[in-house]
Amino acid sequence: MDSSALPSDLPTIAIVGSGPSGCYTAQFLRKQWQGSEIVIFDRLDVPYGLVRYGVAPDHPGTKAVTKQFDRLFEQAGVRFAGRTLIGSAASRGDFTLDQLRAAFDIVVLATGLHADRSLSSPLAVVPGSDLPGVYGAGRLTRLINGHPDETVDGVRLGERVVIVGHGNVALDLLRLFLTAPEQLRELGIADDVVRAITAGPARQIDIVGRSQPETAKFDPAMLRELGKLAGIRFVSDAAPADLADITSSADSTSSADSTSSADSPNNAASPNNAASPNNAASPNNAASPNNAASANATRRDAVDALVAGSDPLATRTVRFRFGWVPDEITEHDQALHLTFRAAPATPDSDGSHGSDSTDSTDSTDGTDGTLSIAADAVCTAIGFTEHADAPLRRAHHESAEHLDLDRGVLGDGLYCVGWLRRGPRGTIPENRVDARMVANCIIADHTARLPHGTKPGYAVLARAADTTTLHHLIEELS
Amino acid sequence: MTRTIILFGTESGNAEMVAEDLASELGGDPIAVVADMTDFDIADFTPTDAYIVVCSTHGDGELPSGARPLFDALQEAQPSLAGIRYSIFGLGDRSYETYSHGSEIIDEQLRSLGAERVGVYGRHDASDGSLPNDDALEWMRAVFIPA
C-alpha cells in the first residue's frame, strides 16, 4: 500500500455491472487504492454477468475466472450490491445514475451490450428475421446458463438448424447442440432447456457466415474442439487450402501491408469485427500483421482438418458455409426457408465455393450465387448491441465537455469500460486489457483532481429508506 | 539481499493471482516480489535472485499477451542469462491440444539464453474449472528452494 495515500484521499467508487469488465476494473482500481470503498452494482442477485450467463457451461476453465473475482469481493472495502438496478430516471431504477454520481467520487458503467444484433438492419433489411423460430445467440446462451430473465417457452430446435455467424459464440452453440442430452444435464443445464435444444435432435446443422475461413472470427482451437465430438460428419463449402493456394499465398503477403482483413469492406462493416482499429491500437494486441496472416492460414487448415477427420458415414451432418450474406427468411410448409446471396469477393477471398457433396439435403447451392436452406430453427450469432430499453444508454450520459471514449471518459468522474465502451468485441482477457487501460485513466484523472475523495459512498445509499430522501442525505453528509 | 522474484505472464489474471499467493507463502515483499512480465526490465535479471515463472497459455498455444513484452525484449536483446536459476509453473487447459504450451515458449527462451531451470516443471490443468493456486503452492513447497 502506498503509505502516502491518507484514507481521506481515497475516492469512493461505484461500478455498474459485475461482468468481467466491471470486476477487472474494480481489481485494478483496488490495487491502486487499497482500502477505498468499491461498490459493484448489478440488477441481478448474483454477480459476473457474461462469465456466468454467456460463457458455455462446458468451458469451466473459462468460467474459473469468477474465482478470481470471488477473492475480490472478500477484500475489505469491496462490496457487491446485487438486485439493484441503476436507471436513468427514478421510476426505472432502484437508484438513478445521478444519485450514484452524487454519492460516489467515481462511477464506472460496465453494463455491456445485452441485445442480440438482428440479421436485419436499416441499411440491409432482411425480411423474416424476427419470425418465430429465429433465436438470438445471447438469448440461447442465457437460457442455457439459467439466466432468470429467460424462459424456454417457444424455444424448440428441430432436426434442421441453421446457425448464422462464424464467431466463437456460434461455435459454442453448435457444440452444445451436438452434445448428448445426458451430458448437457450433467453440465447443470435445466431439463426443460435440454429438451428444447435437443428436440429433433438436430441432424443437419448449417453454419453460415459471410467471411471465408481465413477471415472468419472463430478461434482455431474452438474448431479443433469440435473434432472431438463423435458421430458427426463435417462438410465445408470453401475450397480446401490446396485448391486455394494461389489466393492464400497472395493473402499472406498482402495482409502484411495494405490489404489486411480490417481493410476489407465486408469486415469493416461488421460491428463485431475482431480486427477493428480499436483492437489494433491496443498495445497488448498479439495480432500483428504477420501473426494475423499465419492465424488466417491456421484457421483454414483447422476447417480442412475438421472436415478430413470427420466420419463420412455419420448420420448427423454439420455444413460450414463460407461467404454468404442473408437475404430473406420466409415461413411456409411448417419450415423456415432462408435465402443467402454470395458475399462480394474481397481481397482476402476468392469468394468461390468448393463443390459440396451431392447427397440429398434440404438446401440448394445455386450456380446463380444464391443459397437456400430449409430449417426448423435459426440461431443468429452475429454480435451484440445496446438494448433499446437498456436502463442506461451510453449516449444519454455523454457530456460534450468531457467525452473521451478512447480513455473511457463519459463525463466528470463518469467512465465506461468493456463492451459498452468499445463495442461487442473480444473475449474475457481482452476486456481485462480494456479495464486496465480505463483504470489507469481513472487513476490519472483522480490524482489530478482536487480535492480528492469528498463523496460519502455507499452508506448514504443504504441509509436512504426511499430514493426521495436520498438527495437530502447526500447533501447532509458531503 | 537474496530475493525471490515471481514473474508472471497472464491473459485473464489467473497467473497473477497464483504469483501473489506464492509470494505471500514465501513471506511477501521484500523477500518475495511479484513482477509482471509486461513491465519487467530484462536488465534486472540478477544471478543472486531466485526466479519463479508463472505463465498461462493463450488461444492456440500462444504466449499470453502479458508475457509478450518480456519475450520480445529477450528476443531483441539476446542477453546472456548465464547464472540465472528459475523454476516454472505453467497454466493451461487440457481440453486443448496446446495445453500449457504458453509457459513452454518462455521456458525454451530462458534456457536458450543460458538460464538454468531448477526442479520439476509444474503444471495446472484448468479443464475441470479448478483454480491453479493450490496446485501451485503444493508444487512450490515440493520443488522450490529459495536462493
From TrEMBL, chain B:
An example molecular function term from Gene Ontology annotations: FMN binding
InterPro entries (alphabetical): Flavdoxin-like, Flavodoxin/NO_synth, Flavoprotein-like_sf
Keyword Ribosomal protein: no
Record key words, sorted: Flavoprotein
Presence of the UniProt keyword Flavoprotein in the record: yes
SUPFAM superfamilies assigned to the protein according to its UniProt record, in alphabetical order: Flavoproteins
Ranges where the Flavodoxin-like domain occurs: 4-144
Cellular component, GO annotation: cytosol
Domain of life the protein comes from: Bacteria
Name of a matching Pfam family: Flavodoxin_1
Protein name: Nitric oxide synthase
Organism: Cryobacterium frigoriphilum
